[in-house]
Amino acid sequence: MAEPKIIYLTKSVHDLVKEYPELIPLMKELGFTRITEKTALNTLGRFMTIPKGAMMMHIDMGKVISTLLAHGFTLGGSFAQAPEEKAAPSEETAPDERTARITEYIRRLSAGEDLEKVRADFVKHFKDVDPGEIALAEQSLLKGGVPLRDVQRLCDVHSALFHGTTRAEKIAAAEAKVQESLGRRSPAALERKDGADGLYEALRSIPGHPLSILSLENEALGSHLEKVRKAMETEDNLMEELAALRRISFHYNKKNVLYPILKMNYGFSGPSDVMWSVDDEIRDTLKNLEKRGLASPAVRETPQWKERLSSALTRAEEMIYKEKNILFPLCAKNFKEEEWKSIARDFAHMEPCLIVPQPRWQEAFPQEKEESSLSDGIIHLPTGRLTVKELTALLNTLPFEITFVDAHDINRYWNDDGAPKLFSRPATALGREVYTCHPPKVVPMVKNLIDSFRTGKQDLFDVWMEKNGEPVLVRYMAVRDAKGTFLGTLEIVQKMEFAKEHFAKLK
Known about the structure:
By secondary structure, the chain is α+β, with helices and mostly antiparallel strands. It folds into 4 domains: 5-85, SP0561-like (Orthogonal Bundle), CATH 1.10.3910; 91-167; 190-363, Four Helix Bundle (Hemerythrin (Met), subunit A), CATH 1.20.120.520; 385-506, Beta-Lactamase. It has 20 helices and 10 strands. It has helices spanning 13-19, 23-30, 38-42, 50-57, 61-70, 95-110, 115-125, 131-143, 148-162, 167-182, 196-204, 210-234, 238-245, 248-266, 269-295, 303-334, 337-347, 388-397, 443-454, 497-506, and strands at 5-7, 73-75, 373-375, 378-381, 384-387, 401-406, 411-414, 460-467, 470-480, 486-495. α6 crosses α8 (131-143), α12 runs antiparallel to α13 and α13 packs antiparallel against α15 (269-295). The chain is globular and about 85 Å long. The chain starts with a strand and ends with a helix. Mean pLDDT is 82; it is low at 78-93 and 170-192.
């Protein structure tokens, strides 16, 4: 007789599927779509129960139970206690009403009402605030006709409304006191009522995960903002510290990867429309202040310059707050594992911000990269897909002549846009050894160059010359795959008169 399959609804989803792997396809069919994501299961799944997940995903718990029973599972313990996961009904549980109230508070601030008075009313009606609610409030303002510029300006002011009111902050404050009394430093993991904080904390604990990188950068930025403020007081190394702070643009570049996903995939346009613009304003202000401060030391002594810098620092500090309490938990709650892996691969090609080295999330980088393939006239590449027609037109649009010689020194390809070439390339040369295209006295030099590429002695060789009265760059490059295997040689011929004229105008 088979052992009974007992489900305890108080157990975490992670532990349940570990015990009963057959739950995974069953729960996915019920609507628990992220159950198949390894990262989500090992993070959110460790503290998420079936009743909690059903509540978050708006899945009928009755249907869940009947499905489990129909597939041979038995409920252990007292199921009467399971629905306690559900919040008690109150006026606060109506999302539309909560968003409307938050929006109204922000409108009152925009009208110039005293912050503390608005905060007092806010605290009366809200025990805590979820990140999505704040984002939706900003969207509501935009849809209600408030100009984008005004909402951007409000971003700096209204974030003060939420300080200390998110559930995460309340728990953190309480935990901090306990930890202080116990002589420990690190507070316990936090959990917002919608699960966003718990998932955010779990994901940021994964080395190299995008949320881990962004959080580490914010910690570094917070410390450096303090350094800049101290330098303003002491007047020591101020411009050096300000120059280092301008690396904040690398942090904002990474956030630019998040915004479109939130907007296009999950319908949260607020962060994209508001935060993105504020990021740009902070970045541009710091750049302008540095430029003016370097050009004239006297400017740095003016009250106007100092006030602008202090204001920019405050805006940057407020943005760190909004990222931690709104943007990152919102992304953590919504983004799928494959989206995070794609973001991690994007981050790997982006400059780090005040953290060196930038950690790498190994799980996002498979040992074997996706191979290219051709099907139905579509060339599938690791970074996209093109038709043969598109690829041909793309290569012919490049502002230079290219020739590819394969690993066996055979001419395999050159682009041709129909215009006269600096170096003639007869079609009959395709499929022949590259050496047959050069005069005998040049052949030894060409062989030595390609051999140096083949053996790895060098990867690049430039030849500058004049052709028909204008400067020309001929660049030879070794072509290698991801493992470093030599695939051939690329020749690029480019007219450089445009660059010469450009820099002449700057003199």
